[in-house]
Amino acid sequence: MTRAIPHSAVSAIGRGRAAVDPTTATSSNGRSAWLSVAAASAGAGFIHLALGPAHLGELGALGFGFFLAAGLQLGWAALAVAVVLGFAGQSRSRPLASLAISGLAINAAVLAAWAVSRIAGLPAGAAPWTPEALGTPDAVAGLFEGAQVLGLVAWLRGWRPSPPVRSRALSAVGAAIAMTLILVGTVVAVLPSEARHAHADDQAHGHATLSEQAEVHAEH
């Protein structure tokens, strides 16, 4: 003869399962982790967007890949924020799983293209198939992309941040710190690059002016 489980016990079991449900992102820790990953994707996207015009001039049509990468990374970040903040206390594993897989595919592809450009070079530019030097902007973007890939792989394999005591305040502070670091890294990556391009243009213009002056003096 089996004993009926009280309704209160069933409710408690249900609440316990919901609390450890590996597919939920409704906890403050889960939201903070996803928002940090989205911020990393946005940081890499802004770097690619800022560097797009210069590489478009250097690589021709292949330079549009920077704008494509920027659009995919920024779009994914916006979608991730919209989905995570729109949970309204419900566990929806399918949207998160799809987001994780798509984000992993996007950033793995961008990282692979970056690795090829640094190891074998690209089939365009002044010296095709010549490995490019590692610079600050691409290093920071690669760091953001690598962190996002690792985070999404960990999430797909079942890792979840366990909520400590006062997890809401702690996770909010952690997310704020992560997003601040990503923002600072993005600014540091973009501004020096733009300054270097401007400095290089000024140097090229200065060399051209000196050359013209030398030719004028030679004629006289």
Mind explaining what this structure looks like?
This protein has 220 residues and is mainly alpha-helical. The protein has one domain. The chain has helices at 7-20, 28-59, 64-85, 93-119, 136-156, 167-219.
Count of helices?
6
Number of domains: 1
Shape: elongated
- Whole-Å distance between the termini? 116 Å
Got a strand count? 0
What structural category characterises the helix and strand content? mainly alpha
Return the string of H and E elements. HHHHHH
Rg value = 24 Å
- Helix percent reads over 70%
Strand proportion: under 5%
Low-confidence stretches: 7-24, 198-211
Write down the overall mean pLDDT.
75
The biggest sheet amounts to: none
How would you sum up this structure in a few lines?
The protein has 220 residues and is mostly helical.
Give the helix/strand layout:
Elements: H1 7-20, H2 28-59, H3 64-85, H4 93-119, H5 136-156, H6 167-219
Distinctive features:
mainly alpha, 0% strand, single chain, 220 residues
